[in-house]
Structure prediction request, 94 residues.
Amino acid sequence: MAVETMVKKIDAVGLDREGYTFIVAKDGTVYYTGELTRHLSLMSRTSCQMEDIAWGGILNDRGDWVRRSYDFGDAPTVEIRNAVISAIQEQIYA
Prediction:
């Protein structure tokens, strides 16, 4: 997976706005939405297929790490996870 990431916000469609759901494609693209939802549901709103997704996670409403994706697992390393979280936080607080 690429170390540099492109972060794309996907519009929220649900009512649970207490955090952020994100997935990371194998090409390094990060997709996130400002709601808590299933990672499979978020994937369905992108052009990605299941085999394109490397991992994902949940952030709280402040953008802090909560847990890995039950659908796609966790980042291969803590460093990669932290880099992706930082990239998402930059967009959240921009």
The helical segments are 39-44, 78-92. The chain has two helices and five strands. The two ends are 25 Å apart (CA to CA).
